[in-house]
Amino acid sequence: MSDLQRNILHSIGNTSLLALRNIVPANGSRILLKLESENPTGSMKDRMALAMIEAAEADGRLAANGCVVEYTGGSTGVSLSLVCAVKGYPLHIVTSDAFAREKLDHMKILGARLQILASESGRMTEKLTRDMIEAARIIAQATPGSFWTDQMNNRDQLTAYHAMAEEICAQANGPIDGFVQSVGTAASLRGIGEALRRHNDQTRIIAVEPAESPVLSGGKTGAHKIDGIGAGYIVPLWQSDLADGIEQVSTAEAADMTLRLAREEGLFAGTSTGANVVAALRLAENLSPGATIVTIMCDTGMKYLSKH
């Protein structure tokens, strides 16, 4: 395919893998950050949105004259808005005022129709997650010809993350000793983790969750302000036997690291990325000197300017 035949969806993936230079472990380990901010909407979710839509097209769940429905904290919604705009599908999104205003505006600009649910003081809670899912289910049920991507249960997205892991392995120039990723739907942790383990079954895989809502660790559900992660309950795609450990990172710790990344590395990311780097530094303390740890820059901080 020539460059002139390509559309913006062909720009998804093949993002850079960058070693942190200033925010580094004391034992000399490397932290490599996969720069998913390089995707067209500035988020890793471009990969999974395209995978879900193309799988549904292929097996007939999404017809040529169909519409798409989803619940989302924002990044998945923006990515679906991009894919649907290019492919010509109407999109109905259920979201909330708990999430960054920039994401909601971006979805609308790309043509999505939004239903915005009220939150508890701008915080993410289990009730909000479940209310969003139910609202999307009702819309999909009432709309003839609709396809509900249902990201919490959709396994089609795993193929996108398997491919992302192959990119990482090709770029890392050596064995990967640890992989760290925050858990929203759990699809990225699961998909990337599964594929990395096929290359090296000794790779330690660490899940990250908000300290205020440590449900994966067996704690109580709670409210937090880390966009895109911490649904408040055990999500369907979570596999406890895949993760070697779970790190709890508070909203404040994640936000502080986000500012450090911007000011010390020139990397402007969202708070889930801050949480990832906090957890990666902790993992490095438990690995041999010189280990290589990979984590994800999930999205760009430009999506969160109003929250700073």
Q: What do these coordinates show?
A:
There is one protein chain. This protein is an alpha/beta fold and 308 residues long. It has helices at residues 45-59, 75-87, 101-109, 126-142, 158-171, 187-199, 251-265, 271-284; strands at 17-19, 30-35, 67-71, 91-96, 113-117, 146-148, 178-182, 204-210, 245-249, 292-297. A six-stranded mixed β-sheet has the order 1-2-10-7-8-9, sandwiched between helices. Helix 2 (75-87) links the parallel strand 3 (67-71) and strand 4 (91-96). The chain is globular.
Question: In a nutshell, what does this entry contain?
Answer:
The protein has 308 residues and is α/β, with parallel strands linked by helices. Helices cover 36% and strands 17% of the residues.
List the helices and strands and how they pair.
Elements: E1 17-19, E2 30-35, H1 45-59, E3 67-71, H2 75-87, E4 91-96, H3 101-109, E5 113-117, H4 126-142, E6 146-148, H5 158-171, E7 178-182, H6 187-199, E8 204-210, E9 245-249, H7 251-265, H8 271-284, E10 292-297
Parallel strand pairs: 2-10, 3-4, 3-6, 4-5, 7-8, 7-10, 8-9
Antiparallel strand pairs: 1-2
Helix pairs in contact: 1-2, 1-5, 2-3, 5-6, 7-8
